[in-house]
Design goal:
By secondary structure, the chain is an alpha/beta fold. The protein contains twelve helices and five strands. Strand 2 and strand 3 form a beta hairpin. 34% of the residues are buried.
């Protein structure tokens, strides 16, 4: 459990683990023992990982995000599925919807993800049950506002002002400073203003990229506002981004993975760690219990 925790929880390399055990515990071990330990722990964690996947499938909503990954030098992707209670990391060779199909077949819950036009894989989910991340919209409006075209820049400033208004209203509603009726009325006004501003983007000449962005946002406009009617849905995908950051840090400090066995160890140890943190459990204690459990 200690070796696997140092590797998976705290991102120590195999040589670091070897040195720590020698210097602190006076326990000389080989690098092969570290690798063999990860192999054994991977097997022990399989049932727990499958249980976490089942919990994710049963969730009423999921935040989903993805980031780059490499196995044996070949490009792949790390997918993060998370709610407030469970997180699942899946390493795959694809960024396509076949990964979502295999992980979440016939998923009936609601999904919070990045912008709909960014990755076609998310079209696997019913658009009526999707929420687009407003943090990603902020990046688009920021680029609009800093355009060298004065007319276009003003539209970007107006859109960003609307975005800030949305977050201010959402914060006031969540803190119970305003009631649901006033919240929805004010949001309705902002929605009308946003439609007008996005249509205004289409009237600005010589900005074809901005036209594409505006058309995509108008097409997926309904997916921007699911959080208004469902208090369980958040307007951003920040939860998934916070959870996947743990893997991103590991990726920067490692040489990725070099086998399917390595992929499975990382998937299972990270999913266990992140879920325990969400549930305010001690991840090392939970890992020790799973390792000690009879096969």
């Amino acid at each position: 459990a200690i070796i696997s925790a140092m590797s998976g929880f705290f991102h120590n390399s195999k040589r670091d683990i070897q040195q720590i055990l020698k210097d602190i515990f006076h326990l000389p071990i080989s690098l092969g023992l570290v690798s063999h330990t990860e192999k054994r722990v991977r097997r022990n964690l399989k049932p727990a990982y499958e249980e976490l996947v089942d919990q994710a499938k049963a969730s009423a909503y999921l935040h989903i995000d993805e980031t780059g990954h490499k196995c044996q030098g070949k490009r792949g992707w790390g997918w993060m599925l998370t709610s407030r209670d469970v997180s699942v990391l899946k390493l795959a060779s694809s960024r396509g919807k076949k990964v979502l199909q295999s992980l979440l077949p016939s998923y009936k819950g609601k999904v919070i993800s990045d912008r709909s036009d960014r990755y076609g894989a998310y079209r696997y989910f019913d658009s009526s049950k999707r929420q687009i991340c407003w943090s990603h919209l902020k990046r688009d409006f920021y680029r609009f506002a800093h355009s060298q075209n004065p007319a276009f820049a003003q539209v970007g400033v107006n859109l960003d002002h609307i975005r800030r208004g949305v977050f201010a209203l959402y914060g006031a509603f969540k803190s119970k400073k305003i009631d649901a009726l006033l919240f929805k009325r004010q949001i309705h006004q902002l929605k009308k203003r946003m439609v007008s501003e996005l249509k205004g983007v289409l009237k600005v000449p010589d900005v074809p990229h901005a036209h594409r962005v505006a058309k995509n946002l108008l097409t997926s406009f309904g997916m921007m506002w699911r959080f208004v009617d469902d208090p369980e849905i958040e307007p951003t995908n920040n939860l998934a981004e916070r959870q996947i950051r743990r893997y991103v840090v590991y990726r920067k400090k490692s040489l990725f993975t070099w086998s399917q066995r390595g992929n499975e160890f990382i998937e299972r140890i990270f999913s266990l760690f992140l879920t325990c943190r969400l549930q305010n459990q001690n991840p090392f204690l939970r890992l020790s219990q799973l390792i000690a459990a009879p096969p």
